[in-house]
Amino acid sequence: IGEARAARRIAAASLLPAADLGGGYTTSRRSEQVAASDRHQDLFETAFDAGWELDLFGGARRQTEAAEAALAATVEDWRDVRISLAAEVARNYLELRASQQRLAIARDNSRTQEQTVELVRNKFQIGLGSDLEVAQAETLLAQTNAQMPALEGSAAQAMHQLALLLGLQPQALKEELTPPAPTPPVPPHLPLALPSELLRQRPDIRSAERQLAAATATVGVATAELFPRFSLSALIGLQSGSLSDLVTRASRFWSAGPRVQWSLFDAGRARAGVEISEAQRQRAQLFYEKTVLAALAETENGLVALDRERATQKILAAAVDASQ
Questions:
Q1: Coil vs helix vs strand at 219
Q2: 287 burial via Cβ count (<10 Å: 0-12, 13-18, 19+)
Q3: Does the pLDDT of residue 234 top 60, yes or no?
């Protein structure tokens, strides 16, 4: 963003006059074919030079518009990064708490299955069961215990990822996040809105639109190169062969006047620049359309997935009641 702001200031500066202040000293010696009195010469000079290019065909204004649009696109990219960061933090936190809850359930199941194994062994010892039943109970216990290391690893990885997202050392959040906590509640319903209204909240679409605006303005910059340039210039200064006489009235000189410059032949370079800018604008437009269509698809897929997950949740809730 800082870079884009500086680029905007550079573009805006082209709309204003420019002034330079300089000075110098030169010494020269001419050929011996020149009179001896004129052979060696010292020259002291200082001058104030000002110039202003008149933006009659809008090239500088379009350049400023392009820089403004590029800055806006960069700000939207920054917002996109912030949203992605927040989403990653939320996702990893949910994964952490879910892994901890699943680990707690696995430990409860393990304790229950240990009691079952003990009961089955007792039945087998008094002749009311078979060794197959003992083996099956022991197998189920081993399978449950085998899930715990993976769940512990998932929780640790989510904790380390959260620390990375927050710019911390991997173990920085261990003391805070190791104690289990409930999963944050999910809103029961999304706000009523059309997918197109949801797209207005996406900074990636706004960034692509601003990139298209910048590319469109760049076409105007290239088009201005086809027309003549008009400028005003002024020069005033002091010039003398002796440093002691430099600040006298007689040492003053000045010049001022308008200037026009128009390239009569450049082998088609300017028109090729316009074609390049137009092709870049078309590419930016296609990228914008692609971004919008992809966002529409992602939004629709998200809404469908949310609706189906809620249906799955109801079925699983019924299964939980039956299992209990």
A1: helix
A2: middle
A3: yes
